[in-house]
Design goal:
The protein is of the alpha+beta class. The protein has three domains: about 120 residues, Phosphorylase Kinase, domain 1; about 250 residues, Transferase(Phosphotransferase) domain 1 (Transferase(Phosphotransferase), domain 1, Orthogonal Bundle), CATH 1.10.510; about 40 residues, no CATH class. The protein is about 35% helix and about 15% strand. The chain is built from 17 helices and eleven strands. The strands form three sheets. The chain has a six-stranded antiparallel beta sheet. Strand 1 and strand 2 form a beta hairpin.
Length: about 450
């Protein structure tokens, strides 16, 4: 059964928006390694805490060019604690550097962990973590590009993500929430992309012992609804194939603009069943997304390869890379390490975004994702459940009311609000049906811990 929607003002949602108090620039935090860090200006916030520019402690003021950011949240919140477990085990700088050297990679898009600790102020305790600073996120780039990325770029992003996923998988974790808003460009190099937000990261193989497949109805549909895996829809803990399945959906959306089930994201069972049909007939799924002349064979082959994986199988990462590299070759391109974003003719961001329902996510702590960029489009903020601007979701309902009013005869008396609502509820226009009520809110799996 889909999770029940929580009544407004109830549950833990409002509590999570009670952020840590804003510390003044110059506040000094000391991590568990006794290293001191100085805060600069706050540059954003997520559902659980604040994000500050930061640098190593010195007599200098932390300026706009600071190389680090620090997340701060009340110590009894869960998501940052969950992220910390991943970062401390898998993202220490020396470990990442060693992997890059042994695998002969120029860079690895996993954020480096620089330190963490607890800070007391005004009788309250706060948890903090020091991270690399990043630039804009790919969701913003996606909207600016008319909700389509060039094929070369999509394949390059797929190759970068395969590198990232192989690394975190080899360190016993899966990410479980890959999407454009969790992919950030480097602050200093716009040709480097990093996968962030490990609030849903899951240790699928603690001490090398694989978790067993087990369906749990209480955990159904965890993740971001349009991309989350079939395993997650069934309440199964994520595994390596889950990450690759999600990556497949992302690449298809980035290339064609919209997944077939995006019109009904409020209906979790519909989305799940649509993905099951996709898995059963990937060729038919690709035909729904692309015209025959634009169909990217490499994405179909990628998804077919992922389909062969069992729950505990180790993916053939190099084979998957070869599939995407062959796709680049087929269009006369090569992976030149340059990420080129451009608009696609005939697809405007407004017309596409208006039809994209609000996203549902079990846990939406943006941390380094989106928080650093204060130029996030309003469309995107509405798409996430717990963004900076709260939970107002009135654009689509207003459009419905406007359509209703313009359809009414000017000679008739204005209809009562009750009558308008009744008429709106019986409309058959797809765009209006999607606006009926709010999407059901998903329970935060961390609340039960």
């Amino acid at each position: 059964m889909p999770p029940k929607a929580k009544a407004a003002g109830k549950g833990r949602g409002p509590e999570k928006r009670k952020l840590a108090e804003e510390f003044p620039p110059g506040e000094v935090l000391t991590d568990t390694g006794k290293k001191s860090w100085k805060l600069g200006a706050p540059i954003g916030q997520g559902g659980f805490g604040l994000l500050y520019l930061a640098d190593e402690n010195s007599s200098k003021t932390v300026g706009a060019g600071a190389p680090y950011v620090i997340k701060v949240e009340p110590s009894d919140n869960g998501p940052l604690f969950s992220e910390l477990k991943f970062y401390m085990r898998a993202a220490k700088p020396d470990r990442i550097q060693s992997w890059m050297k042994s695998h002969k990679t120029k860079y690895l898009g996993v954020p480096k962990y620089w330190g963490s600790g607890l800070h007391e102020k005004g009788g309250n305790r706060y948890r903090f973590m020091v991270m690399d600073r990043f630039g804009t996120d790919l969701q913003k780039k996606f909207e600016e590009s008319g909700r389509r990325f060039p094929r070369k770029l999509v394949l390059q992003l797929g190759l970068r993500l395969l590198d990232i996923l192989e690394y975190i998988h080899e360190h016993e974790y899966v990410h479980a929430d890959i999407k454009a808003s969790n992919l950030l460009l480097s602050h200093n190099n716009p040709n480097q992309v990093y996968l962030v937000d490990y609030g849903l990261a899951y240790r699928y193989s603690p001490e090398g012992i694989l978790k067993e497949y087990k369906e749990d109805p209480k955990r159904c549909h965890d993740g971001t609804i349009e991309f989350t895996s079939i395993d997650a829809h069934k309440g199964v803990s994520p595994c390596r194939r889950s990450d690759l399945e999600i990556l497949g959906y992302c690449m298809v959306q980035w290339l064609c603009s919209k997944l077939p089930w995006e019109d009904k994201l409020q209906d979790s069972l519909y989305v799940r069943d649509s993905k099951l049909r996709c898995r059963d007939n990937i060729s038919d799924f690709m035909s729904q997304c692309f015209s025959s002349q634009d169909k990217p064979d490499e994405l179909q082959k990628f998804m077919e390869e992922v389909k062969t994986l069992s729950y505990t199988d180790k993916p053939a990462y190099q084979k998957l890379r070869s599939i995407l590299e062959a796709g680049l070759k087929s269009i006369g391109a090569k992976d030149d390490d340059k990420l080129e974003f451009s608009s696609v003719n005939g697809v405007g961001p407004l017309s596409s975004v208006e039809k994209t329902p609000k996203r549902k996510r079990a846990v939406d702590y943006k941390g380094e994702a989106n928080d650093e960029t204060d130029g996030t489009p309003a469309k995107k903020r509405k798409a996430e459940k717990k963004e900076v601007n709260g939970v107002k979701r009135v654009v689509i309902p207003k459009k419905k009311a406007t359509l209703k009013k313009t359809a009414a005869s000017p000679k008739k008396k204005p209809a009562s609000p009750k009558k308008i609502l009744v008429e709106m509820a019986t409309q058959t226009t797809p765009g209006l049906k999607r606006g009926r009520g709010r999407p059901k809110k998903k329970a935060d799996p961390l609340e039960s811990e």
